[in-house]
Specification:
Strand content: 5-15%
Helix content: 40-55%
Distance between the termini: 23 Å
Strand order of the largest sheet: 1-2
Shape: globular
Structural class: mainly alpha
Length: about 150
Amino acid sequence: MDVGGYTVGIAGRLSNFTPRVFVLDNFECACLEGALQAFKFDDPEMQRLVCMMSGKEAKTIGQTRNEAWQSSQTLWWQGKSYDRLSPEYQQLLDRLYEAALLSADFATDLLATGEEVLTHSIGEHDPRKTVLTEEEFCSRLMAIRSRIKKQ
C-alpha cells in the first residue's frame, strides 16, 4: 500500500500531511509534517510556529531550510542539536510517532491497513537529503501497527 498525501482512503490518511493534533514535548503539532519540518529550524519559537502549520504550508517553509541543514547534517529540537545520522535523532523520530499515535484515529487508520506492506514511492532514500526517509517512515508505521495488534 503506497502511503502519501497524493492518495485517497487509508493510504492518504496515513500521510504526514494529514491533520492530527498531538503534543510532542509540550509543543502542540497540527500534523506530523509540521514537526518534521520544524526540526530544520534551530529557534524553538520558530519550531513552535512550524509545528502548528498545515502539512503543505510546513513543507513549503521547511524547504527554505534544506540547504542549511543538509550542509551541516544537523537538525534541532527544543534547543538541542541532532546529527541527522545519529541514534539520538532516530529516538526523536520514535518519540514523534509515538506522540502522534495518541491523536484521534491514527491507530484506527494503521489497523485498517491489515497486513499490507506500507511503502512511500515518492519518498527519498538518502538520509542526508531528507529529515525522514521512506524506510524510516514506513518501518515506523508498520512497527507501531504490529505493536497495537498485540495489545
